[in-house]
Write a structure and sequence with these properties.
single chain; eight-stranded antiparallel β-sheet; eight-stranded antiparallel barrel; 2 helices
Length: 233
């Protein structure tokens, strides 16, 4: 890579010991009809990348897993990949860098990713679906189970993904904006792989955090009552 030393200096403000600074990074491009959105959700060890269109709404793809960074090289060991049947990809690699404070993949400076403002909330983190409520001692689905439903919340953005880590069977995803305060949890859907027509819907729930458990009550996207318990990963 040209001017490697100077390039790596640009990485420092948003890189920490082989990690991308946690948060939400977004990019977009204008299409003939609508806009294509690129979203990256990042913790210090896990990331999810999603592509979807708006106006009109259309889900395109998502992938995610644990990642490592070595200088300008990113490697993601994928837990899920919505395009797995087409690509067979269980590991994803890319070159990364920062230019003028924006994240760039594979030197594609024409589509930089901008880090979104930090909006810390009580439920920020990675959560795995554990069981249906109420919590009366029923068996829980743990992290060791290959079939998982993951919910990633950070800086006012959310995304859930249902998948099987062994078979790479992708079952669906949805995401958008969220807010959690004073026991009220609200989602606004911006993409939904199972039904694009649900984009724009606003869903409201009650929540309570009990230690590493999140109790989630309300009605699902079909209007049916639900009570879920999620466990902090």
């Amino acid at each position: 890579m040209k001017n490697c030393a100077a390039f790596l200096l640009l990485l420092l403000p948003l890189m920490m010991l082989g990690q991308i600074a946690p948060g939400v990074y977004t990019a977009s491009e204008t299409l003939e009809n609508g806009k294509r959105n690129y979203q990256l959700l990042v913790t210090d060890s896990y990331m999810v990348h999603t592509v979807y269109n708006s106006n009109p709404a259309k889900f395109i793809s998502t992938m995610g897993g644990y990642y490592t960074v070595d200088q300008d090289s990113l490697k993601i060991t994928l837990e899920f990949n919505s395009d797995f049947e087409k690509t067979g990809e269980r590991e994803h690699r890319a070159y990364i860098g920062f230019q003028s404070g924006q994240l760039v993949f594979n030197e594609n400076s024409a589509r930089p990713y901008t880090r979104q403002p930090e909006v810390a909330q009580l439920l920020d983190g990675l959560w795995l679906f554990a069981t249906r409520g109420p919590d009366t001692g029923q068996e829980r689905r743990g992290d060791s189970a290959p079939r998982k439903t993951l919910k990633f919340l950070t800086d006012g953005h959310f995304q859930w993904i249902a998948y099987n880590v062994e078979t790479m069977d992708f079952r669906g995803t949805g995401g958008g904006r969220y807010a959690a305060e004073q026991g009220n949890y609200t989602e606004v859907i911006e993409f939904f792989s199972r039904d694009d027509s649900r984009v724009g819907a606003e869903l409201s729930f009650e929540f309570e955090r009990k230690g590493d458990d999140w109790h989630h009550k309300g009605k699902n996207s079909k209007g049916e009552p639900m009570y879920e318990i999620w466990s902090l990963r």
